[in-house]
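step: validate -> pass
step: tokenize input -> pass
step: predict -> running
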Amino acid sequence: MVEVWAAVAGASITVAGLGVSGVSRQNRLGQDSLIRLTAAVDNLSDRLDILHNDIKTKDMEVFARLNELERAVARLEGHSDRH
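step: predict -> pass
step: emit ->
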């Protein structure tokens, strides 16, 4: 009877140890995934900032050219300069 209890206790300790090691491994994998995702989001944010600045610069150029064209058309049509 003592052998049965020893076997049950040994099996319980083994199962508990495996469970703890599995949880520990999942925590490490979760931390690794979180680090990779955080780095990816940070990189994406930097790239979006660069894109946003490029778009703003391009828009300023386009609207400046449109303004010049509008003034030229107004002069050709004989209208006074509205600006």
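step: describe -> The chain is about 90% helix and 0% strand.
step: cleanup -> pass
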